[in-house]
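User: I want to check something. If I give you two sequences, will you return the structure for each one separately, not as a complex?

Assistant: Yes, each is folded on its own. Here is the first sequence with its structure:
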Amino acid sequence: MTDETGISSAALVDGLACACAGITVPVGNETADGSGIKALQAHFERAGLQTRVRHAVETVRDRLCHRFRLDLSGAPAELLADLDTARLTGALAPDAEAAVEAEIWLAWLVSPMELSFPNFDELLAQFRVRCGIVDAASSTLVDFHATAVNRPVSHWTYVEGVGFRLNPGKSLAEGLDLALHPKTPEARYAFSCKRASEYVVLLAMAREAQHSNPALYAAMERQWHKGPLMADAFEAAFLSPVGTATCPAPKRWYVPGDRVWFRNPEPLSADVAGYEGSFVLYLGSGHFANFWKQEKPFTVDSKMLEIYCWRFGIETREGEEPTINDDLVDEAVAQHLQRPEEVAAIAEQMYRYQDVNPINADGGAIDYQREVPRFVLPDSCSVELPD
C-alpha cells in the first residue's frame, strides 16, 4: 500500500519510528535508575503500551542517557503524518486503564522532538502535573470577558495596576480552585481565555508543589500575595515552549495538559479585544477544554470553524470599539455545517501553521509550538519566580 507520494505505508511507519526522539533521562546511580525504570514500566503497563516501548542507553549531547521510544509497527499510516496522538492512542492502546494517562505516555514516546527530563522523579512529577491540568481544566467553568473580571472576595482583592492579589493568610491553591470551579453555574467568575488557562496551569503546579516541593509552593503563595504574574511574566516563570518555527510540532501531536494558542488569521476580527486567537488546554481524546460551555469541549476542527466564523459576528456602534456577537458566530457555524464542502475549504485554510511574523499572509491558526509546565521538584526545579 502506498500513499499519494508513492511512499509505502511500511516505509512511512519505519521512517517515523526512526524519527521519534521520545523521552530521555540521564543515567544516574543504579538504585535510582532501577526504581525509576520500574515505576515507568508500571505506567506503561497501565497504559497498555508495555509491549511497544523500546528502551536503550545512548549518548545524547556527550551524556549517557536512557531513551524510551514507541514501536509504531502496525500503526495506521493515515494517523502518522501529523502524529495524531488521540487516534493513535485508540489504535495502539485500546486496553488502557485510563485513556488520558495512556495518551500522555504515547504522545511523549512518539515525540519527534527530544523530551529531556533531568531524572525519573521529575518525569513522574510532570506526568502528575499534566493529569492535574486535565482534571482542573475539564471542570473549569467561567464567564468569558476580555476586560471585566472578578474573583471570590474571600481570597482575592483587585489592585489597580497590579491585578488580583491573594488575600493575606489565604491558600493559593484554594483561591484558584474557588475561582475556576464555582459552586453553581450562576456564580461563575469572569476571565479571558488566557487568564483562565494560566489559573488552571498554576493550580495543577501548585497542587504538585504542595506535596513534592513545599518551598516552591510557599514562594508561589508569596508571589501572589504581592501580585500575580500574568501574560509574558507568567509564561517566563512557569512554561516552556516545545517546537519552533523551523522545527514545528506536528499538527495533531498534542499531549494532555498542553497549553495551545490557536491564532485568528483574519485581520478585522483579530483586532477585536479578546478575539486575537484562543488559548486552550488539551484534555486528551482529541478534545480541548471549553471554559464557557464545560459540557461542549472543542475539537481542533470545531475550534478552527469557530475562529473562522468570528468574522461574521463583528458589530460596530458609533463612538465604541468593535465587538463580536457570539450569537451571530454560533449562527454562522451552524450554517456552515450544513455545507460540508465549505467546511472542508475552511479547514484547509485554517489548518496551516501560523505566520511567524505579525503580518497576516497565508498562515492559518495552528501553532508551531506547545507550552508545557516547567520542572517542579527541589533538585530539578526550573520555575523562575522574580526576586
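And separately, the second sequence with its own structure:
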Amino acid sequence: MAQVITRPIPVARALPVTEVRRESYGALVWRKFRKSKIAIVGGLMIIMLLLMAIFADFLSPTDPITPNMQYAYTRPQQLYFISSNGQLHLRPFIFAQKQVLDAKTFLPTWQPDLSHPSPISFFVQGYPYKLLGIFPSRLHLYGVSGGATVFLLGTDKFGRDLWGRICMGAQISLSLSIVATLIIIAVGATIGIISGYFGGWTDNLIQRFIEFLQSFPALPLWMALAAVIPITWSQTLIFITMSAIFALLGWTPLARQIRGRVLALRETDFILAAKEMGASDRRIIFRHLFPNCLSHIIVVMTLTIPSIILSESFLSFLGIGIQEPLVSWGTMMREAQSLQTLSSNPWLMWPAAFIVLAVIGFNFLGDGLRDAVDPYSIV
C-alpha cells in the first residue's frame, strides 16, 4: 500500500496595503499655488500694501494731513550709517536740511546740514491717531527727536510727508477697488448664474440688457458720472458712489463668463440628480452651481482689482474722482501734472511706483490662481 505523504499547505501572506491619502480640493489648490514663485511674490506684494494701508498712521512719522509750509517741496532725506569722521553706527541717522539758493537758477533748494545729525528712534510717540479707527494711540514706527524731521520720500507743496500720504492713499485706492470688485462679483455672478440656469426668455432678456450696457464706452461714462458728484457730499457717500460707478459696467463681462459655465454645468449628472430629488432652484443655485463657479470668480476678482485701481487713479488725476480731504494715489499724482514742478521735484512721482506695484502684484497673484484653481491639469 502506497504511503501518502501530506505536506502543509503554505498560507499566502497578505500584501501590505498602501494607504492612499486623499487631499481636499483646497489642499490641491494650495500645493499647486505655492509652486508658482511669481504668485508667491505677487501675494507678498499685496500683503505689504495691505499692511501699509491698515497701519498707515503707525508708519507715518508726521501728520500726513496737516500742512507745514516751512518744509514745502523738501527733498527725500538720506539715511546714514557712517558719520563724518568715518565711524560706523548700527543705528541709522539723518542730517537736518537747510534751504539755500541755487547760484545758477536762483531757486531755493534743500541741502543736508552735516553739523546736525539726528539719530532715528523706533517706536516713538508722535501725533495722536486711532489704530484701526478704534484704539487711540500715539505710537509710531520711527521718528527723530529734538524738533528735527524725517522725510524719507520728501514732501509735497504743502510740506506734508509723502511717505505718510502714500500709506494713507493706499487705504482709499485699495479699499475702493476691493469694494467695487465685491459689488461686481455679487451682481455679475448672481445674474450670470440666473441667466444660464433658467435660460429661455429670462436668458434672452438678461443678455440683451448686458449688450445694451456694453454698447456704452466705459471710460467716458465713468468720467461723466464722476463729474456730476456734488462736492458737498460727505466722504463716506463719495466713496460709496465712486465704488458703485466703477461697478456699473464692470459686472457685465463676469456675468457672460459665469453664464457660459452654468450652461455646461446645468446638464451634468449631479444637477439633474438634485432636481429629481426635489431640490429647489435656490438650493441648486447657491449650493451646487455657485461653489463650482467660485474658482473662476476668485481669479476674475484678482484681475479686476488692478483695473479699477488704474481707473480710479486716472479719474482722480484728472480731478473728477476722489477729492480732498480724501487721499488716494490718483489725487497725489495730480500734483505732478506740471512738467516744471515735476522737473524740480521728481519725488512727486513716488505714488506712481506704488500704483505699478499694486497692479503687478495683483496680476502675478491672478496668474498663479488661474493655474492653481485647476489642480488636475497636467501643465
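Because they were folded independently, the notes below concern the second chain alone. The chain has a mean pLDDT of 81. Residues 22 and 171 are 41 Å apart (CA to CA).
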